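thread: overnight batch results

M.L. [08:02]
morning all. the overnight job finished for the chain we discussed friday. pasting input first so we're all looking at the same thing
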Amino acid sequence: MDIIVAENAGFCFGVKRALEIVAGAAQSGVRPVYTLGPLIHNPQEIARLEAQGIHPVESLAQVASGAVVLSAHGVDPGVEEEARAHGLEVIDATCPFVRRAHAHIRTLSDQGYTVVILGDPGHREVEGLAARSGRKAEIVTGKEEAERLPFCDQYGLVVQTTQRPETLREVAGALAERCRELRVFNTICEATIGRQESARQLAEQVDVMLVVGGRNSANTARLREICAATGAPTHHIETADELEPAWFQGAHRVGVTAGASTPEWIIAEVVARLRELADRAAPR
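M.L. [08:03]
and the structure it wrote out:
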């Protein structure tokens, strides 16, 4: 059985940067370090960080002193202001691509556009984006919801960094018919586009496709959708322990891709377990 890992899989620039920032913050050991929410969407990596003394918290009420790291997804600016008001050190690990989207929303809001965000409601990144519009943004997940928005003089469209380009085109097309002026900022991360395309191409060439990453990861879920759409049997797993031998019966080629928050060590464990399964199934 051949095991092929997608050309673009695993950590993206923003995730690597966030992990480097939090590691540097914890290195001195002179004050406790907390992350506001999970730093990235990978439970195994979060557990590894916690073992090193970097603790995730859900609210500032859980932090008496020390440093608070803002996650790669960004946060409501009001949260940052509150942290500083409580005398906490604030360390911003927001992905630069997410910050770019924040700036576009502020520009659109200042210029009087009705802001539309293409994204997953409830996702931390989307919540942070909406906060930059003064909570006045419309959030849509696709073309159908965009088509239900009221007619408007000016719509400004910004997109969650992990969305699919095809969905952005569909939503932009729907909005163009519902306003006199439409301004679109394509804020999808280039690494996301590359990861999605390499996953799709690999899925078209294999008998079984594995997508590795946290189940709370939006970009990993999107990879699963893309791979499954090719017709390849697709399985979303978090760790090698979830692999089922029955998935690979009769398979000659198995593809592996991974979300932007999936560390290399988890991908390596999955590949190693696949090799074990292949060795067991090989004729003696």
